Please model this.
Amino acid sequence: MTPLVVTELVLALLVLLVVGALTFVWARRRFISGDGRPIMLCARRDDPVGRWRLGLARLGADRFEWFSIVGPSLRPEVSWQRGELDLGTPEPLADPIPGLADPVAVRGGTKGSMCEFAFAPAAYTAIRAWLESSPPGYNVNVA
Model:
């Protein structure tokens, strides 16, 4: 084989890998939000001085789930029950997070595991409204 053919094969393989990776990211995102549940960008960090990890937050009927933005897993990395999740007050975030415009930081979690979230202001409003509304079937016999 000539060097030109080898170069063409290597370039074709690289293009195929890039297209395959982009297709996987697109398909994973479609799968995560496939059944029409709201999904939004959200950063999370466990340590107040640690680095932010960008991910996807998904709201279900009774769960708040967080997926890493990159990775092969179709399962949430962390999940909280709706009735157990507690979010603090939002504070403007000075650190820029790529993908989040003017993010607000919120301390939240359950009694045993606390972490810090960063949302776009509109996403925080949506999560707060979801959190404060009644889950389906909760207190249905209230008159």
